[in-house]
Amino acid sequence: MAPKARIRMKSILAIYPGSFDPVTNGHLDLIERGAKLFDRLLVAVLRNLENDPLFDIAERVEMMAESTRQWPNVEVDVFEGLLVDYARRRGAQVILRGIRAVSDYEYELQMALMNRRLEPQIETVFMMPAETYSYLSSRLVKEIFRLGGPIHGLVPPVVEQRLRAKVT
Ligand code: PNS
């Protein structure tokens, strides 16, 4: 009798790190794609930002949690310090990053290669959001909102509400 094949199921945990100040529909597009590809997706919100954030860490996490609750394999967490240290602690094999346009590539490549040098076991995987979001960024959303422009369709409803609450 032929020996039974040994099937090893490998569960891939990917980390999607970022500032998310605030989360945009572009981020959510990427999270949806990542949640389909990987067994578990951990959205890791960076606690301390170099520039003064508009939303503090609790607000950024709450908005992310609210906006991702329809995906059961997505978890939201906070991290600080080196991303690879956090990834190692959490047992992640993959760092997921989005590339919107060629202009993102240089910075992302530098980060991916540095992270690989720091932790060769973790692979960075790049995914492209839908082209509708290729020009969207948290920075532009904040600027448009500050100057009174429409942000509907660019961010999830909870972010729209929180932005409006900031000025009332
Ligand atoms: O949303 P962002 O601001 O583009 O995300 C950048 C982020 C959080 C992924 C990056 O700044 C980061 O990983 N910071 C943690 C500190 C770290 O590990 N730095 C070395 C990167 S090679």
Walkthrough of the structure:
The protein has 6 helices and 5 strands. By secondary structure, it is α/β, with parallel strands linked by helices. Helix 1 links the parallel strand 1 and strand 2. The site of 4'-phosphopantetheine has 9 residues, from strand 1 and helix 4.
Structural class of the helix and strand makeup?
A: alpha/beta
First-residue to last-residue Cα separation:
75 Å
Quaternary status: single chain
Radius of gyration: 17 Å
Name some characteristics of this structure.
168 residues, five-stranded parallel beta sheet, 6 helices, binds 4'-phosphopantetheine
Concise synopsis of the structure shown:
This protein is of the alpha/beta class and 168 residues long. The chain contains 6 helices and 5 strands; from the N terminus they run E-H-E-H-E-H-E-H-E-H-H. The model has no long low-confidence stretch (mean pLDDT 95).
Protein topology:
Elements: E1 13-18, H1 25-37, E2 40-46, H2 57-68, E3 74-79, H3 83-90, E4 94-98, H4 102-118, E5 123-127, H5 138-146, H6 157-167
Parallel strand pairs: 1-2, 1-4, 2-3, 4-5
